[in-house]
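Intended use. Records like the one below are meant for learning the mapping from a protein sequence to its folded structure. Do not use them to infer anything beyond what is encoded.
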Amino acid sequence: MVERTKGLLVLEDGSVFPGYSMGAQGEFVGELVFNTSMTGYQEIITDPSYWGQMVTFTCPHIGNVGINREDAESCEPMVRAILVREMCETPSNWRAQQPLPEYLAEYNIPALVGLDTRRLTLTLRDKGVMRAALATNSTDSARLLEMARNAPDMSALSPVEQVDTEAVSDWAEPVAEAWDAIKFKQKDAPHVVVIDCGIKHNILRILKTLGARVTVVPANTSATDILTLNPNGVLISNGPGDPVQVPATVESVQQLMGQVPIFGICLGHQIIGLACGAKTYKLPFGHHGGNHPVKNLATGQVEITAQNHNYAVDAESIKDLPLEVTRINLYDNTIEGLKHTKMPVWSVQYHPEASPGPHDSLHELASFVASIA
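Structure written out for the chain above:
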């Protein structure tokens, strides 16, 4: 059992949320967001796109199925902290290897429990993403407010440098046999080079299950070095932070366009937009959850998608560019898909690997692999 102590969360607008700690002890600052997914807390906690962020779970009770090493989206938790109404300390699932509070404490991740997550979510929805300070050993709200207001803004950081791979490597692990959602395996083995900006492991697993040979390279890898690997296609991954903070990746994509097919996911979608001359902007409170309806403008079909991003491509900025909007978010009409009108370059803002989330968009990865086979 993890020791419980009193804790306090203070937002930069002065809002105060008391609770008690069920994770690491200490003081922490970060950007605060909320996630509306009802399941998949382990995948969310280990998603590199959450680096530096405190995540509020709108689902009132998490931890029931514990933690297992097979479902992680990276080698360790990536969130700065988690904030929940209730957390289970005694999981009941045959796959569970560790209780969630114990896992968080092992990796020095704080968890504040028992706070009013409904009021916290409404505050973020009304006022937007904010910086926050969390303490498990102090109730000095004035000092925590100062810490929150002095915390670095995510737009000024370069978090991709903290989460991408350090060296070129091959990926060999497929999707677990028990998961039969992937049924499109290719006859050949096209070579996919993945530009790792903080990729989730399930994207790599699905590519491998689809029959691709997968090579992962660091985010700052040059176009020349990528082409030396002789890829049939390049995938630009998801990742944390503001896309303007990865200029080396944007430059590489600019040089790769027209030489090899390119597919972008989430941050990769935004990077493609920047590489084509578009602009990006920060959303008020971002898209974080597994229930976002996205409309395919060519077919009229609506898919329910999993999303995790704070930035979007500016629709006004692409009007004179060789880019076509292929999908929109039906919540707020933001751009969810782009396609280059002259080159094999396309992207989606959501997460087609469905981990966690609905499987509606798994065909996106299958289509990419099929198109380069």
